[in-house]
Design a protein that fits this description.
about 90 residues, alpha+beta, 4-stranded antiparallel beta sheet, 4 strands, about 15% strand, globular
């Protein structure tokens, strides 16, 4: 239910949602955001998102031994509902 709620609300943003069939994480491509920070690499974008927007994401590149940039980050939706609501409000403002 949390996944469906998170996906439905996140689909109202400019993030491109990737399939999420069996996990607690929603991977998204952030390259179509119309903000200057969308040009940052995954690590720097996630740092900016955490410090300036107040929502934490994990860069997918962190899971590769070799430096790999795909413009994809992941959010965890295994959170309390109010935490998700707050995060979604902040993400929808981008």
């Amino acid at each position: 239910a949390k996944r469906d709620f998170f996906r439905a609300e996140l689909s109202k943003t400019k993030f491109k949602l990737l399939p999420t069939p069996g996990t607690y994480f929603q991977c998204v491509d952030y390259s179509s955001l119309s903000i200057p920070q969308a040009k940052l690499n995954e690590v720097d974008f996630c740092k900016w998102l955490t410090t300036e927007v107040g929502v934490t994401a994990i860069p997918v590149s962190a899971f590769y031994e070799q430096s790999t940039e795909s413009g994809v980050i992941r959010f965890c939706f295994a959170k309390q509902e109010q935490t998700l609501v707050n995060a979604l409000q902040r993400l929808q403002s981008l």
